[in-house]
Design goal:
This protein is α/β, with parallel strands linked by helices and 414 residues long. The chain is built from 14 helices and seven strands.
Length: 414
């Protein structure tokens, strides 16, 4: 195989680009290049074993670092489907060590490996925990969303403390409040949505780990607070901590007790199922770094494009290598030596802004390692990994193409 062709295929994949677009650009520039089928051959025979080898070596180094700590670790876990909706083909479950800020494992599950696409997240978690245990890594704390199957599996198969990510819970509460604010006579609820959401974060962060009852007491206090009542019946949190003087709270738009808006807020805040979840809110660590990792995955494997099982797994491993190398980059500095910041207007702020640190440019040392491993793979090829799930269509009987075409033509010729 010509070395330049192999390096081109590797560069396309390692950069997270799509071969179809890159090769079309070359074609438009009248540059002779390989065909798409050649790229696929390179990926199957050389690139996939190379990525697997480098990713496994990287995992072993991270696992060794964790083993040297001689203490249980705290992990965050979350799933990502390859496409929107409820008919995803692939589900990737990522596990991240929250103190190191590194992805430990990412398991790819195909929907026909489980009962349905809804079950892929639980299967991914089970495989990831099995991987950690096989490498001697003990999990002491796990933070996930409120997925019911995940809760049951962790309760039955792990001794670790299970917390819920605050962002996922706050998102659900905020969505319900926004729906209420659209109802007639409930317009005043909108002015309280941000405060109530922020209060939920404070309830988790200001309570000691394991003291879920205090978190619930603080949360329930907001039902009184929006009515300008700042003393509460619960002895764990008998009164609000803010300044209760009238002049200090004059800018608030208090709700009148017994009104539709007030009753609707109480229904959300005092919900018993929500109270059970608030008891398990994570007081320290969250899954926000995993959301950042999913943004990196979107670069390597956009949801608008379809990939094979091997192609998706390769791109997930590349995303993890890139994230682990660049997640903890230091803040960039100006020429005068001051820290750099930027103002951003995220969609969820709805016109509001946030101040973000500007990080130093990304590095790509992992690509240098991949290129070196690819050169070794060309000299000493390894067996192609053929242990992949069968295609989704394998359960159906494939018709004869000629007969199918003739039947199609005869049906539309009538």
């Amino acid at each position: 195989m010509p070395a330049g062709n192999i390096i081109l295929s590797g560069a396309i994949l390692f950069a997270g680009a799509t071969p179809t677009k890159v090769l079309r650009v070359m074609h438009h520039m009248c540059i002779p290049v390989i065909h798409l089928s050649t790229f696929m051959t390179h990926q199957r025979v050389l690139l996939t074993p190379t990525i697997n080898k480098v990713w496994k070596a990287h995992q072993d180094r991270v696992f060794g670092e964790l083993q040297s700590l001689h203490q249980p670790i705290a992990i965050a876990g979350d799933g990502r489907c390859d496409s929107p909706g409820h008919s995803a083909m692939f589900g990737a479950y990522s596990v991240l060590e929250v103190n190191l800020g590194k992805v430990l494992d990412i398991e790819l599950v195909q929907s026909n490996e489980v009962n349905s696409s809804y079950h892929m997240e639980k299967e991914g978690l089970a495989r990831a925990i099995s991987k950690l245990q096989s490498h001697g890594v003990e999990v002491g704390t796990i933070i996930t969303d409120r997925h019911v199957q995940i809760q049951k599996w962790v309760r039955e198969n792990m001794t670790a403390t299970h917390y819920f990510d605050v962002w996922h819970v706050a998102k659900g509460v905020k969505k319900k409040l926004e729906h209420i604010a659209k109802e007639k006579q409930c317009e005043d609820v909108r002015s309280w949505i941000k405060s109530i959401s922020n209060h939920l974060y404070w309830c988790a962060a200001s309570s000691e780990p394991g003291n879920g009852d205090l978190s619930v007491a603080k949360w329930h206090s907001v039902a009184n607070h929006v009515q300008n009542r700042h003393t509460h019946a619960n002895c764990l949190f008998p009164s609000c901590l803010h300044d209760c003087q009238p002049e200090a709270n004059a800018h608030y738009k208090w709700l009148q007790s017994g009104t539709k808006a007030c009753v609707k807020i109480e229904e959300v805040v005092l919900n018993q199922r929500l109270a059970k979840d608030i008891k398990k809110l994570s007081p320290i660590h969250q899954t926000s770094n995993l959301e950042s990792f999913h943004s990196v995955v979107n670069h390597f494997a956009p949801k608008m494009l379809a990939f094979s099982y091997i192609g998706m797994r390769n791109r997930l491993h590349l995303a993890a290598l890139h994230f682990n190398e660049n997640a903890n980059r230091p803040q960039a500095m100006t020429n005068s030596g001051t820290s750099r910041y930027q103002i951003s207007f995220p969609k969820y702020k709805k016109g509001g802004y946030i101040v973000k640190e500007v990080k130093e440019d990304c590095t790509y040392k992992y690509v240098e390692e991949l290129i070196a491993a690819l050169e070794e793979m060309v000299k000493e090829p390894e067996p192609v990994d053929r242990q992949i799930p069968p295609p989704l269509c394998s359960q159906f009987q494939r018709p004869d193409k000629l007969n199918a075409v003739q039947a199609h033509k005869s049906r539309f010729a009538r």
